[in-house]
Design brief:
- The protein is mostly helical.
- The chain folds into two domains: 1-69, no CATH class; 70-113, no CATH class.
- Helix content is 73%, strand content 0%.
- It has helices at 3-9, 19-36, 42-49, 51-56, 58-65, 71-85, 91-111.
- α2 packs antiparallel against α6 and α6 runs antiparallel to α7 (91-111).
């Protein structure tokens, strides 16, 4: 399977874990990170230990270990994912909610200047 097909698999909502499962994995990664932070090779150790997560969510993993993730936005997005998975929201409604939140945080303030 080529990398384009593999990458597209992860954009299919049915192939993505629930928001709670992802949240739990992130907690484990952060806990291990704090235990290994003084180790020069902690990034490689984390990549090896959580290789399945890295394979599925490489950008998310990189943002976590580089500490550039916005936990509040991530939590909101994972909540939307959970609501999609449980049938509380459609993909369209969740996408609209995320878009509205990002617009109000990033675009709207600049329009008011």
């Amino acid at each position: 399977m080529n990398s384009e097909n593999t990458q597209n698999e992860y954009f299919n909502i049915s192939n993505i874990q629930s928001g709670n499962d992802i949240r739990n994995e992130i907690s484990k990664i952060k806990k291990t990170m704090s235990e290994l932070e003084n180790d020069d090779t902690y990034k490689e150790t984390l990549k090896n230990k959580y290789s399945s997560f890295v394979d599925k969510y490489p950008t998310l993993f990189d943002k976590i270990i580089s500490k550039t993730i916005d936990d509040e936005k991530l939590d909101f997005m994972l909540s939307m994912l959970t609501q999609i998975k449980t049938g509380e929201k459609t993909e369209f409604d969740a996408s609209a909610a995320v878009g509205k939140k990002l617009f109000s945080e990033h675009v709207e303030p600049r329009l008011k200047k």
